[in-house]
Amino acid sequence: xxxxxxxxxxxxxxxxxxxxxxxxxxxxxxxxxxxxxxxxxxxxxxxxxxxxxxxxxxxxxxxxxxxxxxxxxxxxxxxxxxxxxxxxxxxxxxxxxxxxxxxxxxxxxxxxxxxxxxxxxxxxxxxxxxxxxxxxxxxxxxxxxxxxxxxxxxxxxxxxxxxxxxxxxxxxxxxxxxxxxxxxxxxxxxxxxxxxxxxxxxxxxxxxxxxxxxxxxxxxxxxxxxxxxxxxxxxxxxxxxxxxxxxxxxxxxxxxxxxxxxxxxxxxxxxxxxxxxxxxxxxxxxxxxxxxxxxxxxxxxxxxxxxxxxxxxxxxxxxxxxxxxxxxxxxxxxxxxxxxxxxxxxxxxxxxxxxxxxxxxxxxxxxxxxxxxxxxxxxxxxxxxxxxxxxxxxxxxxxxxxxxxxxxxxxxxxxxxxxxxxxxxxxxxxxxxxxxxxxxxxxxxxxxxxxxxxxxxxxxxxxxxxxxxxxxxxxxxxxxxxxxxxxxxxxxxxxxxxxxxxxxxx
Amino acid sequence: xxxxxxxxxxxxxxxxxxxxxxxxxxxxxxxxxxxxxxxxxxxxxxxxxxxxxxxxxxxxxxxxxxxxxxxxxxxxxxxxxxxxxxxxxxxxxxxxxxxxxxxxxxxxxxxxxxxxxxxxxxxxxxxxxxxxxxxxxxxxxxxxxxxxxxxxxxxxxxxxxxxxxxxxxxxxxxxxxxxxxxxxxxxxxxxxxxxxxxxxxxxxxxxxxxxxxxxxxxxxxxxxxxxxxxxxxxxxxxxxxxxxxxxxxxxxxxxxxxxxxxxxxxxxxxxxxxxxxxxxxxxxxxxxxxxxxxxxxxxxxxxxxxxxxxxxxxxxxxxxxxxxxxx
Lengths: 506, 327
Hints:
The complex is a heterodimer.
Chain A: E1 13-24, E2 27-38, E3 42-46, H1 53-60, E4 68-73, E5 76-78, H2 83-89, E6 91-94, H3 106-117, H4 125-138, H5 154-167, E7 172-176, H6 184-199, E8 203-207, H7 211-217, E9 220-225, E10 228-234, H8 240-248, E11 268-275, E12 279-286, E13 291-295, H9 302-309, E14 317-322, E15 325-327, H10 332-337, E16 340-343, H11 347-351, H12 358-363, H13 379-392, H14 409-421, E17 427-431, H15 439-454, E18 458-462, H16 466-472, E19 475-480, E20 483-489, H17 495-503
Parallel strand pairs in A: 3-8, 3-9, 6-7, 7-8, 13-18, 13-19, 16-17, 17-18
Antiparallel strand pairs in A: 1-2, 1-4, 4-5, 9-10, 11-12, 11-14, 14-15, 19-20
Helix pairs in contact in A: 3-4, 3-5, 4-5, 14-15
Chain B: H1 2-8, H2 12-30, H3 36-61, H4 69-86, H5 94-117, H6 122-139, H7 150-157, E1 159-164, E2 171-175, H8 177-194, H9 196-206, H10 208-214, H11 218-244, H12 255-265, H13 277-292, H14 301-326
Antiparallel strand pairs in B: 1-2
Helix pairs in contact in B: 2-13, 3-8, 3-9, 3-11, 3-12, 3-13, 4-5, 4-6, 4-11, 5-6, 5-11, 7-11, 8-9, 9-10, 9-11, 12-13, 12-14, 13-14
């Protein structure tokens, strides 16, 4: 692999890592990566899962020692760095889970780390309150210091992690995928906090693979792939296409999905479906070969609608017809018997048995098809079926008997899909199918969704990822505050239009 | 208003209400609950379970569970008792406390080693050591009930005050051992509230990874915790036999379930990270009333076990349900 761009940083360099190498067992996680972060710079580190991003962060913050290479911080060469020392130097990591104590108060969450660093043996609550008040004042954020952190929103937990880092005189704050659990509005206010930190002379290493955010917030970027430095430079010179290419090493083009002209009898007809306080008066038809995109903000009722169609929630009124026959879907079992499949938003907790083998996960809901009448598993049939689906969905796995948790997010999602496809479905409902999935895998999943629809499946794609809805759907319905506000063909709309419709400006 | 809201998010007010309601019921039916001797009797019966529950609560706050403390207490007091009898010990009683505490600490250190240092699951380790210590007591020492050394017997007879019921003529003695309970409770309160070690126990129960990253010595804290609970169990063993003036090796075995139930009933979260001494004491009080005072209104001891069981299920279900509602 060759380097595409490497521009040298112009301002004062805060962190300079050169030729960093690291192996774990036989795996070469980093093969000589450079990273240079300037003073008061917002630097984006991007790369797919397994690219070595987190290893690099851990080396900079002293968790792992590098096998080779050197790290300079504020002009001083660092050797034998450990986490405590990194914090003393002013290198702070804000982890994805924020590393807060849910059971303790805001005050203690803010003060404990500092007290520990100073080797205190006793805790003085008056002093702790002063420390905490000082911390929240730094980013001008007001909160009840006596509230338990578990009662706070994700965004507030993150602000607590940030103000805690500032308490210890941070000079470089590393944020590991800070926006993954935030709403759009919360992302906005996080960005203004980041800008404020920058104005105070603090450098930020922003780890993300979300394109829009990288363009919006960062001054410079570094992209690594498979443990190698691919590109580094000013974000100004970067565009979407290049960014994706650097990240994945592949080029993608997405065309709209247009439904092949086919049978015009709807598979699913929903009339006046209402769940009080959540959504009301929902009516639509879904045809074979169709991908119907349903989009809306968090709380618009999109997820609840999907869960109603799958029997998790019960509507107060309205009717559901499947293939021109009125059906009642009272339980998940009813939905499955009627040929409806559902891939939930949070596949990790709701959709998969993570510690079980890949092949077992694929067949778990179709065991009767590969068992004898008395329920004994037919092993040759089991292997044949699972291999068929692994091939059909090109799931990348070294061994089908390995636990699902060893797979990447994209491949895990394919396992969930395989499980449904192993049944004969007439309707498949997907809820945010590419959330938290790598760009490369995302395109693969999109291609797969289009292929399934082309083969005759009727698909409902629920998502707030507008480019995804546009790229995959043939028809789009926008939901706002529990109602359908607009229905249109995907080819006749734009991201801008959709975005305005979801918030209700248009 | 906000303060009131916060108060009713806690478990303590509810369990206090339950205790008041139950005591009024018993008072109306028997007229005996709020009598001096009954209250002294209750306090006396609470001493041993309350001592155990203080340690048990600390373990549950840290996210663990300990079922071995009664076995530790039994073996520690039994070895101490046998040894002191064999040398015809006649010195002060404090030596028996120190010896039993040291033995308990040693056994706790075994738990601490497997749980803290080797990071094994707490339930599995303590189930194993509970069986191990009980087995050693009955196997290696062929334990059976025996007398206690004179110092312990004398200590058991020292009485703080006596309460007599004028109506029935029954009287109950408040033993000096109540001071040991008060001392232990103060120590545990101080430890949990004002030391970094204590806050570390809460922090580990909240999020062990976060505690590690914040700079808490997680292994060290856990090791200390199990040593401390072991030593506390050793002390409790001597308290028990001194109050009974008789060393019965089986007298405390099985009590662990009641103690854990009292701790959980008192609002300590089974998943760790949250719990108060006040709540735990109220939990112990409720359990003690159920097993001691129901007899005052003519409910047989067998029935009191049914009530105890029901209260445990209802109490833990209510607190689990309230946690769920908060989500």
